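Good morning,

Both structures are done.
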Amino acid sequence: MELAGIIAQGEGQTTEFKKSLSLRREALEALCGMVNADCAKGIVLFGVEPDGVVCGVESGNLDSAQRSLSQAINQGFEPRLPFEIQVKVVEDRWLVVLSAERPRSVPYYEYDGRAWIRQGSGKRQLTLAEKDQIRRVRDRAFHPGPWKCDRCGICVGQLISVTMTKDGMRKTYDCSCGGEFWPST
């Protein structure tokens, strides 16, 4: 979807607007919440007010702003979050677009030592019990099933395939089609 369409839809489960790059901390907490939610992805638009008005960001040194934002993400997220930063023009104003998606192999992320979860257009901090529950549901090593292949879509109730390694028995997650089985949600 184009940025104009995303802005027209407003803030929601996977979208956050920040009018200024100075609101970086709040933006990164929101991004953490979005990638930790079941949708596992999110986008933050810097230069858009919460009501959807495009105000743009200072066009000073956008390269420096991107480096600073990138550094904050790399230092603040645990484990390291894969992300993308782009500079776009909408309504003749500069926007900084930050997007990220949680790989299935990561149960959840923490930003600055705290895990957040997105609920609608808001966020809240996860409790220890909630983090443990998310880890159990999303971590393949502990998930009891059902499982779904990411390539062919076949569902199985249990994985019974194990291999012996020097470290002991390990579940295998390979499907006969060449895909991998992941917890079905």
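Second structure follows.
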Amino acid sequence: MRSNASLLPRALSAGVAAVCLWAAAAAHAGPLPHLSDYQTVGSGTLRFFGLRIYDATLWSPGGVWFASQPFALELRYARSFDGAAIARRSIEEIRAQRSIPDATLARWEAQMRAIFPDVREGDRLIGVRIPGAGAVFYRDARKLGQIEDEAFADAFFGIWLHPATREPALRARLLGAS
């Protein structure tokens, strides 16, 4: 008959193995259940005057990003923001990068306002770029809506990924540079 003391090392080993398997599975899980083949390309934090605004993670199939291929951008918010303010700020960032007619920007802002929810600390919004279909937005795993406009998708994700972004250090981290 074995003593409880002799079972302890075996139980600890099994527990450690289970935690390692869970961590490995979590590290390779995509940002959404239906994107389980997506892997992290890179991640970083946006700060404004030293305050953490959100943590961003770029995901793609195989963990390699190409602008012409599907990808997902996950933002985990560190603060509360009104959904309309997120849409307005997105338009300001797009306007800073590109020359787009005001009527188009107004239409895009209205579409984003209809989709983007208010967020609180810890909330996670995910935008998925689908070439030929625009962008689909999620709060955690719940679909919020889709904007079927290629020009919008290019401009929106360009906020973070275009070479002219106002946050080049965050872009570099998202693209996997240290």
